[in-house]
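Z., the sequence and structure:
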Amino acid sequence: MSEPKSEPEIDVLVFDVLGTLVDEPAGLRAGIRALDPSLDDATTERLLLLWQEHIEHEQRRILDGERPYLPSDALDREAAHRVAEAAGVGDPDAVAALALSARRLPPWPDTVAGLARLAEGFPLIGLSNASRTALLGLNAHAGLRWHQALSAEDARVYKPDPEVYRLAVTVSGLPPERLLMVAAHAWDLRGAQRLGLRTAYVSRPVGDPPAASDRFDLYADGLADLAEQLDARRARRKAARG
């Protein structure tokens, strides 16, 4: 009878930021309401969807080579202009403030404490499609604490292109299979898998749930659950070594 296959060792945790650690729709929704406080809820949601669709569409065009790379700041400004135009707001200062709302995103209730707990056992890397400047603002506003924060701007492309995940692999100095990518978006985890990273899906209200065909290494209800699962893995490995 063959020996049971040991669980792969995980040395570094790599976190998606937007949606996984911060509530992106809530922050953008607040920015839209500040643009025009008279907007009703239905109109606010319609404008939020307009913003999200623009960002997703333009990032896809960049990934497909249909448009030169632009950092997230530039795409946020475009989205803000579209939303303001649809809302009938032409004040340039108001539009600029709306664009910056993409940097003022609230953390999920378990984010700050969860990162602090996980940091006791692992180096933590933030890996975001947000630009370097936007990521600085995001981290400061949400109280995120990293050992390293990496922006897709350094790869001049967006996730799920493998070059973005390669940034974390390069910084860690480790083989990809020793890194665990943590995200609330199945598409993000699939991108990490293609480069050989381990994957952990964390459930969030605004994420992209796994499909039936997805096979991720861990599935967690939140960061506390993720920490407990990782602690259990380490305990099993320690016990196996005797």
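The chain is about 50% helix and 10% strand. Strands lie at 12-15, 124-128, 148-151, 179-183, 198-202, 218-220.

Let me know what you think.
H.
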